[in-house]
Amino acid sequence: MKGAFRRFVQGPATRWGIRSGHHLVVAIGRTWRVRHVGRESVERARGGGGSVVYVFTHGVLLPLSFTHRNRDVQVLISESRDGEIITRITGNLGYGAVRGSSSRGGAEAVIRMARRAREGHDLAITPDGPRGPRGSVAPGTVQIATRGRVPIVPVGVSSDRAWRARSWDRFLVPKPFARVWVVYGAPIDPSGSRSEGDLGSIVARVEKGMADVEAEAEAYASGRRRAQSALRIPA
Q1: What pLDDT does residue 159 have?
Q2: Contact 187, 152 (CB under 8 A)
Q3: Low-confidence ranges of the chain (pLDDT < 50)
Q4: In 15, 27, 165, 200, which residue has its Cα 20 to 30 A from 178's Cα atom?
Q5: Is 143 helix (H, G, I), strand (E, B) or coil?
Q6: pLDDT tens digit sequence for 152-186
């Protein structure tokens, strides 16, 4: 089975699909009107040039893969069959990849991600992927940040016009020319997680932070709330 899947991934149809997927993401993304709110949280978290760990729900992978492309962000991607294809698509968008899980036997992935953070790379993790529950956070996410000695920044995304999948993650696909809001939450310092109780407390803070920024992004997208300041970063 592994050999058959490898042949499928390396086959002409899949290679064409990966190239098409990359170009499609860029093409549709260039039509979006993207607004970044709370970007100062990221700069504050960096403390003068350090790295950060972006955490967000699995459902907003698509818009963020466009807005943060070509920035040498290292992404934790599952070792599933879908993960193989995602790795190749994100590679075309300028991302590095570490294969593994922060929850299921992922000790090696935790170590490798932490090492990349110490080397100066930003990290991106979907703590609820690849199967949910939506918005949940695996302890390995906090362990990566602790070992890497970097702060955690929750990120929420919403759009005024979008398609939503009926899957567990409510996968978000902003429509062409949609307004897309990317909201950054207050940085979370993981350095206090020295015991199981400390780890659980920080996991809870990360889950709440993700929920808060997602709700804020949805409020901007729906017009229920107006941003005091929003940064427009060229596509």
Answers
A1: 97
A2: yes
A3: 1-11, 13-14, 105
A4: 15
A5: helix
A6: 999 999 999 999 999 999 999 999 999 999 999 99
CA distance 195 to 216: 32
131: helix, coil or strand?
A: coil
Q: Which of 62, 90, 63 is nearest to 76 (CA)?
A: 90
Mean pLDDT for the chain? Answer: 85
State in words which class domain 2-222 has. alpha beta
Q: Give me 12's structure tokens.
A: 């002409």
Domain ranges of the chain: 2-222
Q: Which amino acid is at 201?
A: S
Please report, to the nearest 10 degrees, the dihedral formed by the alpha carbons of residues 76, 79, 85, 90 taken in order: 10
Query: Residue 23 to residues 29, 40, 64, 198: CA-CA distances in angstroms?
Result: 10, 30, 15, 43
